[in-house]
Fold:
Amino acid sequence: MNNLQKIGGVAALFEAVIYISAFVFFGAFWDFPAGTNDTQKFSFLANNQTILSIVNLTMYVIFGIFLAVLVLALHQRLKTKSPALSQIASAFGLVWVGLIIASGMIANVGLGAVIDLSTKNAEQAMTVWIIINTIVDGLGGGNEIVGGLWVLLLSVAALKVNEFPKLLNYLGIFIGFVGIFTIYPAEILTEIFGLGQIIWFSWLGVTMCRSSQS
Structure:
């Protein structure tokens, strides 16, 4: 059990690192020419296809793989003391894993498809690009309801059986509610959820690694 807890803790820390890297990349380095015409936009995407594909792979697919490990580690930790809540939370956690990984695959396949299409019809390619982005946002970024439910139920279960620090569990409950509230299309809620997850994943990862050693 201790080995899985340590692996889960390391996975949680990697989740936080991926979140931070995504914020830094899109906030400081990604300079998409939003005010230009379609041809210039697709020229920019074509020139930056490799780096954007790597970013999509990291923040969706690799993130999802680490998340799967964390979901299973947390289920193992809570299943004896809180079997019902742990099982329900894990179900939402694994669904979230599938949605996130699917988002990354759709994003990268869609990116290649619209770049190829843009050489023939830039206007049609932009329509397809908007549809792809809408699907990706709907599955893994535009709303965080499933992820919010996982964090909320997990934190309630941990609080109920006195696992993890109480403040960490209260933070998880807050983040969980914020994730559920992202059903309302306000970007600030998604940003609060993302920033809150960085703190939550980091704190959770350190806690799990320390408990595995003891």
Observations:
- The chain has a mean pLDDT of 92.
